[in-house]
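Q: Here's a chain of 81 amino acids. Please give me its 3D structure as tokens.
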Amino acid sequence: MDKKFERPEWDRQRILALRRHLRMTQRELADKLGTRQQTISEWETGMYQPRGASSTLLSLIAREARFQYDATLAKKQTRKS
């Protein structure tokens, strides 16, 4: 791999945007990551942030899904919810 793999900072809005991009429920994303649905919920509410292997897996899934995160758009969508 020529390019260095970049891991974005996974904040609550980015995680929620990725899950919506994947059209998955919290349960489905949790199953894909090998974690609990409650963990996804805690990430999305900002109670905790993914770290280590979870952060890496999120980055790999995002790259595979060609997920492009736009912080400005995410904030507008969060306000509508």
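Q: Can you summarize the key feature?
A: Residues 12-71 form a domain with the 434 Repressor (Amino-terminal Domain) fold (CATH 1.10.260).
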